[in-house]
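Box 3.1 A note on notation
Throughout this textbook, protein chains are presented in two layers. The first layer is the amino acid sequence; the second is a token string describing backbone geometry. Keep the layers aligned when reading.
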Amino acid sequence: MGTLLAKPLVSVTGGSLEKLLLAFGTGADSLPAMVKRNRPAVVTLYDISAGQRSLLARTAPAEGGNVLFPAVEVAPGANLPQAILVGSRAWIGSLAARLAESGEEGAGELSAALDCIINRHTQLEWKLAGGCSLDLASGVRIMGVLNLTADSFYGGSRVPTVKEAVRRAEEMLDQGADIIDMGGESTRPGAMPVGEEEEAERVVPVVRELALSHPEMIISVDTYKASVARAAVAAGARIINDIGAGLLDERMFETVSTLGAGYVMMHMRGVPRSMQQDTEYDDLLAEIYRFFAGRLEQARKMGIDPARIVIDPGIGFGKPAAGNFEIISRLSEFAPLGRPVMVGPSRKSFLSLAGLASPEDRLEGTLAACTVAVQAGAHVLRVHDVGPVKKNIAAAARFAGIPAS
């Protein structure tokens, strides 16, 4: 059996709920009348055991909701739910309590998953290298992008020298950046890899110079190579931003654990050179969710404190263009994982679906994506245009009813 996943579907209402139930092999006639009349809460459950299925069947029936099972049994590990809970939030909360009280095997895991959905237990103190931390509860944080390469997809972010990189970082800091993220290898679609030594030679001198001149600056290194991460943290970086989530270098999790650095793990299919060649998903959000659940568990086993981890769904990294819009608008569905979410929509090619053909024309599209991301629950925004985004989220946060930082 795999790791049990409980995922809320926050946007399923009305006719779309009936379509979901039809795809699941059941019908809306099995739902209580109050669920049909009102906006229900919908939770999909993946990788439940036979015992947990039996337990749900016995425990769930009560006024206010129901548990539905597929007409044809779904094997564990499939990208299809094995049960759907449909009802009021109060009913889901009471179901969690009844499961906890049962004391039966597997009940605790189910109860904890449902309780997390209801109460949104997200750790909002991000622990970083050097014994410091970043408070994500006080508002959305901005990570400014600094590309120490000649082939990044957006020319406005490229800096050719250490002196220019330091100046640009200082400028972003003045504009309100909370983190400066620098990378020595382009990870745009089709990009070719760079050797460890060359990447380190691009990144480490800039990290060292900024750490000496601005000790208060929180520096992140954008790398999937453990050796580069070690060198950058030794020079003063506090966060490792890994597009590979530890899968592109088997030494990365051990390195993060040893260094005690903050860590961003991103979802990506394949490698940058080929990631856009396979963008078909049966269930995009479910697959990303399942990926993070597995990688978070592996990170825990490798000794990484979960409080050091932020997750990034990887906008533009092995995703269908339209799927990127869906991910951004449904970020809240990652809340049960208990980790803060970073999103990086800045000037990326998915915005061409909105008629924004070139990276230089995508500032307004980036601001729109950031607005939706904030309202959907993003904690960190990784962007090229720190000043405009800072002003934008000051308003977006007000609409979402959260601090703007």
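The two ends are 42 Å apart (CA to CA). Residues 10-14 have pLDDT under 50 and may be disordered.
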